[in-house]
């Protein structure tokens, strides 16, 4: 069974991959703008998020997302953990992925900063104490920058709580199938965003990828936290459409 997803519009294919703080609803501010600009937009819920439950056997996120590809080339837009999946897809299927937009992307094996480790300790302590409301608020405070309004904060609050519902604290860690892949096989042109108010890990990753991928550009958003597409869609949407439309 395919993961939960929806498709809107007609035109070149764009596939949106959400952050692991959120689910596919994080792209609500982008879908109308992208479809109005002439794109066919697919967005999905990864396993354990939104409307996609965790299966009873191991799975690979990138393989499940690839089942949603159309017949032609696809541009991938990934936020944080969704960016990491986009990178895996671009590395494993370079003939199918035409472009990458990576917003504060994660990268496997990148060393965690003291700030990120401290966040994990705080979140674990709240979850172990059973204080899910406080754990949700911690995530809202850490991952959203100062430009985020109450609507964005409420959205992240709702989506993060859904993550805890589907992946209850203390439950066995879901088993995923790991597939080896190499950044060197990526050929897609790439636009990387990082946020000036985000944890330093994600700026470091963007800088590293900009120096590694063959056709990549890094833009640091001095106003942004970790989820710029939710914080200021009025600023992100034109950048996104401009890059994707430059075929």
What descriptors fit this protein?
247 residues; Rossmann fold; globular; 9 helices; single chain; 38% helix; alpha/beta; seven-stranded mixed sheet
Task: State the fourth-level CATH superfamily.
Answer: Alpha/Beta hydrolase fold, catalytic domain
Mean pLDDT, nearest integer? 96
| Strand elements, count | 7
What's the CATH topology name?
Answer: Rossmann fold
Which stretches of 5+ consecutive residues score pLDDT under 50? none
Question: What is the total number of structural domains?
Answer: 1
String of helices and strands: EEHEHEHEHHHEHEHH
Radius of gyration: 17 Å
CATH architecture: 3-Layer(aba) Sandwich
Strand order of the largest sheet: 1-3-2-4-5-6-7
Category from helices, strands and their pairing: alpha/beta
**What is the strand content?**
15-25%
Largest sheet: 7 strands, mixed
Helix content: 25-40%
Q: In angstroms, what separates the terminal alpha carbons?
A: 33 Å
CATH class: Alpha Beta
Helix count?
Answer: 9
Give the CA-based shape: globular
Protein name: Pimeloyl-ACP methyl ester carboxylesterase
Pfam family, one: Abhydrolase_6
Keywords: Hydrolase
InterPro entries: AB_hydrolase_1, AB_hydrolase_fold, AB_hydrolase_sf
């Amino acid at each position: 069974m395919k993961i939960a997803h929806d498709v809107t519009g007609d035109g070149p294919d764009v596939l949106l991959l959400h952050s692991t703080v959120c689910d596919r609803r994080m792209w609500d501010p982008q879908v109308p703008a992208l479809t109005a600009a002439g794109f066919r937009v697919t967005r999905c819920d990864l396993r354990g998020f939104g409307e996609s439950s965790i299966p009873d056997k191991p799975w690979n996120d990138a393989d499940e997302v690839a089942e949603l590809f159309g017949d032609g080339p696809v541009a991938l837009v990934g936020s944080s953990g969704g960016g990491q999946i986009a990178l895996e897809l671009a590395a494993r299927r370079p003939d199918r992925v035409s472009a990458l937009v990576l917003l504060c992307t994660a990268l496997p094996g990148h060393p965690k900063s003291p700030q990120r480790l401290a966040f994990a300790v705080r979140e674990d302590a709240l979850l172990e104490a059973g204080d899910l409301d406080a754990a949700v608020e911690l995530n809202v405070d850490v991952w959203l920058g100062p430009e985020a309004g109450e609507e964005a904060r409420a959205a992240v609050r709702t989506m993060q709580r859904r993550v805890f519902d589907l992946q209850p604290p203390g439950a066995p860690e879901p088993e995923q199938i790991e597939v080896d892949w190499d950044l060197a096989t990526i050929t897609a042109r790439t636009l990387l965003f990082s946020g000036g108010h985000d944890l330093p890990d994600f700026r470091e990753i963007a800088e590293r990828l900009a120096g590694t991928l063959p056709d990549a550009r890094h833009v640091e958003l001095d106003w942004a936290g970790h989820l710029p597409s939710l914080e200021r869609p009025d600023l992100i949407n034109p950048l996104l459409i401009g890059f994707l439309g430059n075929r």
